[in-house]
Write a structure and sequence with these properties.
CATH class of the largest domain: Alpha Beta
Number of domains: 2
Structural class: alpha/beta
Strand order of the largest sheet: 9-8-10-11-12-13
Radius of gyration: 19 Å
Number of strands: 13
Shape: globular
Largest sheet: 6 strands, mixed
Length: about 270
């Protein structure tokens, strides 16, 4: 079922020029944000604020990025676990592994659209389940090509063009071909949707692809890239210090401030 991702409403646009202030009522479009509860084999994992759409991919990508699948194959994904999807307003998604995945420990509280792991894991804990990427297993990208990626992705962001209020994530190859573009009000959700889509198509690990993320490159963005096998991450904004440390530990080449054909490489320095 296609869910509404944006909504129309009347707003007041204000134009303050010099000493004059003009106001006019006009229609505008805003992005939809709703909670979605993710379950794994019927066990609640987390509730996240997201933009409806690609919900199955989001749930699968979330479980994969958090290591909850533990290598178990996904056998199915569906709305709700033991009731009507309509009754839950299509805001509960269950990922199924036939009980092969370990019983998850749920996150406490609701994950906001701007928040991810929120300190529930650190680099040492990640290293216990994620080995550094072998240099020979991942492809190297031409910096000239990487500088074009933000523009190429922007051309495939219809929701951002309409609302100006969503982030994007995308996979790309060494020829600059963009695939799996996903938009969401949350940066980490957009990445989960990309990873989930690739996992469902058996394209993980993503050693032959790079990952683009809009906004800043946080620790969680790099952690999700590491779990999915991306060897290169390109971000529109700056990374955090923990993101750089994680990329270095993972063997990921991390770029920030990728704008107007300029960028900064943080890892390896």
């Amino acid at each position: 079922m296609a869910r509404k991702r944006s909504d129309k409403m009347l707003v007041v646009k204000i134009d303050a020029t010099g000493t004059n202030v003009g106001q006019r009522r006009t229609p505008d479009v805003v992005v939809v944000e709703e909670p979605m509860t993710i379950q794994l084999d019927g066990h609640v994992v987390a509730t996240t604020m997201r933009t409806p759409g690609n919900d199955y991919e989001l749930a699968v990508g979330f479980c994969h990025g958090d290591g909850l699948l533990a290598g178990a194959p996904v056998t199915g994904v569906r709305y709700c676990a033991n009731g009507s999807a309509v009754d839950s307003q299509f805001n509960v998604v269950t990922v199924e592994t036939g009980g092969r995945a370990p019983v998850p420990t749920p996150r406490l509280g609701t994950t906001s659209s701007s928040c991810g792991l929120c300190g529930s894991e650190n680099i040492d804990e990640l290293a216990t389940r994620l080995a550094p990427l072998a240099p020979e297993s991942v492809v190297a990208f031409d910096p000239l090509l990487l500088a074009t990626i933000p523009t190429l992705v922007r051309e495939q962001q219809p929701l951002f063009a309409t609302t100006g209020a969503v982030h994007a994530a995308a996979a790309f190859d060494v020829n600059g071909n963009i695939s799996f573009v996903r938009e969401d009000v949350g940066r980490h959700n957009a990445v989960d949707k990309v990873v989930g889509a690739m996992l469902l198509e058996k394209r993980i690990p993503a050693h032959s692809l790079g990952l683009f993320v809009s906004g800043r490159a946080s620790f969680e963005m790099v952690q999700k890239a590491w779990a999915a096998g991306f060897g290169t991450v390109v971000s529109v904004s700056a990374p955090t210090s923990l993101a750089v440390q994680t990329a270095t530990r993972a063997g990921i080449t991390l770029y920030g401030f990728a704008r107007d054909r300029h960028m900064v490489r943080y890892s390896p320095a």
